[in-house]
Amino acid sequence: MCGIVGILGKEPVAPLLVDSLRRLEYRGYDSAGVATLEEGRLTRRRAEGKLRNLEGRLKEEPLSGTIGIGHTRWATHGRPSERNAHPHATDRLAVVHNGIIENFRELRQELEAGGDVFETETDTEVVARLVTREMRKTNDPAKAVAASLPHLRGAFALAFLFDGHEDLMIGARKGAPLAIGFGEGEMYLGSDALALAPFTRTISYLEDGDWVVLDRTTAVIRDAFGAKVKRPRIQTSAGAFLVDKGNHRHFMAKEIHEQPEVVGRTLSHYLDMANGRVRMPEGLPFDWKAIDRITMSACGTAYYAGLVGKYWFERYARIPVEIDVASEFRYREAPLSDKGLALVISQSGETADTLAGLRYAKDCGLPVLAVVNVPTSTIARESSAVAPTLAGPEIGVASTKAFTCQLAVLACLAIGAGRARGTIDAAKERELVAELVKVPGLMADALQTETAIEHVARDIAKATDVLFLGRGTNYPLAMEGALKLKEISYIHAEGYAAGELKHGPIALIDEEMPVVVLAPRDAIFEKTVSNMQEVAARGGRIILIADAHAAHDAGIEPAGTLVMPEMAPDFAAIAYAVPAQLLAYYAAVTLGKDVDQPRNLAKSVTVE
Ligand code: F6R
To answer: Do 446-590 and 255-424 have the same topology in CATH?
Structure first.
């Protein structure tokens, strides 16, 4: 899940590589490094930790080469350290890698038996040594790469730089994305369009198994069988300028605050507000009436969005939904109905497990609809149809605005499907659309309670464990709230269906344990009240997220209340996401954690 970039330029490339790596830091920030040719000789600078450490190194020891490769790492094999940082190099070449070489142990043993001495604990070093071994035989970089690639199992995007070759770079991809960027007498490689945006808008995505030989004016692409192939050149819209934090301290805060706007934008894309109707994406290659099952798969926050969506699809469109985390779905050989629809959800559109789930469903002959935020992503490109979320770039590692936009899209799709199948009539559609239209305003109201949330979060920050409870669509939201808290504050948290409490987790409750209850006024509010009574009876400290009268009506005295505006229950989960996110945000800020780049995580998980 690392980010890679390569530049064959006219000017010194080190600052440009760093600029591009800054845009790729969302893929990992355990270490970073660059390699260039200084008077024809391979030279590297690497540093453990965030990109700014590498920048410091480059200030002390600048590089002047006009060809170079760069890398930002999310460690898979070998702990984060300068020694394990990419580029990995031999006397002949340097390489940067995103992905995992699954057979690296076998290859390493074989190379060591042949006399190679390894310097790092990484899987990538085998690639450097394998290609170097071939180079010693042929002295031809392209032939050496071509002979080496078939030995590599797993997923990879690679960029190679060769000692003494001032006008040559080789890239290869299998299972991890890699794009070529075309400039004026300059050529680029990058993990995604965002990385290349400062340099060019004209790009080609390599397809699986492709490898490419670049000089400053040409790109010769071959497929896995060695045949020359052409891949379409497209114009991307990825902005050249990095999105900034505005007046906020962190991207996450900015993104939480953007939600009324981006959810509103997403809803306007799907709703014909004047007529109270849902506009479905055009050209869907299936008929909603013929669908007998939806199979959803996604990871992390996107999976929780899918879980909420399941309630809506089953309620409004009466379509049974099964949903899995994609890392399970891809391997469990699920029998899929030939009248089924696969629905995948992803912010980045590059998540390896979600992509594998998509491919499994496609191989089974199902149409795949992707709810995705990055329109140029692999998942968007490989799906039969795309239902976009219009959240804009999400930079904070913890997903916030992408989640609520995913919910908005799933709600629209469920209503549209219900109408197409005749399970809701025009009047119900109008009623639901009218409720959805109110959601951005309700989210804005929820943001007004920020000061109260900040106060409660200081209390949460003292806890070692936190429980989140909810029912119906607020049950997945409880899990999402717990995930947010875990990932940015490192406080242990679990989300449970409120009714499940007495089947085990209630044993955890004591005076120390905050229990966050998401309790909008829905048809099962009374049931949630009973669960809160159970917590209160055992001395648990309830943090209630509900409307102003809920605590009084429930007959409890919460340790803290986050007051939400009154709203109809159908889509309350979208607005209730706001206090759950802010609670995690302020707990992390109170604890002084790195909110936008929490330890061990990366924004885009392109390895399984
Ligand atoms: C949590 C988070 C992750 C992602 C997950 C899927 O805040 O961001 O759990 O939701 O890695 O990523 P995408 O949506 O890019 O497929």
So the answer is: yes
Region class of 12: left (phi > 0), else alpha (psi between -120 and 50), else beta: beta
> Which of the four CATH numbers 3.40.50.200, 3.40.50.10490, 3.40.50.2000, 3.40.640.10 does domain 255-424 have?
3.40.50.10490
pTM for the complete prediction? 0.83
Give kind and range of the element (H or E) at residue 6: strand 3-8
Could you tell me which CATH number the domain at 446-590 has?
A: 3.40.50.10490
| 2 has catalytic annotation | yes
Ligand 1 centroid vs 27 CA: distance in angstroms?
12
Instruction: State the Cα angle at 84 between 83 and 90, rounded to 5°.
Output: 75
Ligand 1 centroid vs 597 CA: distance in angstroms?
13
Q: Name the pLDDT band for 240 (thresholds 50, 70, 90).
A: low
Provide CATH code, domain 3-245.
Answer: 3.60.20.10
Ligand 1 geometric centre to CA of 348 (Å): 8
**Which atom in ligand 1 lies closest to the alpha carbon of residue 398?**
7
Q: Report strand pairing: 187-190 vs 492-497.
A: unpaired
In a 3-state reduction of DSSP, which class is residue 515?
strand
299 catalytic residue (yes or no) = no
514 SS3 class: strand
pLDDT of residue 28: 80
Tell me the best of 1, 27, 250, 299 to mutate to test the pocket of ligand 1, counting ligand atoms within 8 Å of each CB and taking the most. Answer: 299
Q: Kind and range of the H or E element at 33?
A: strand 31-38
User: How far is the C-alpha of 234 from the C-alpha of 3, rounded, in Å?
Assistant: 21
Q: What is the mean pLDDT of the chain?
A: 94
Please report where in the chains the tokens 């995705």 appear, as a residue.
372
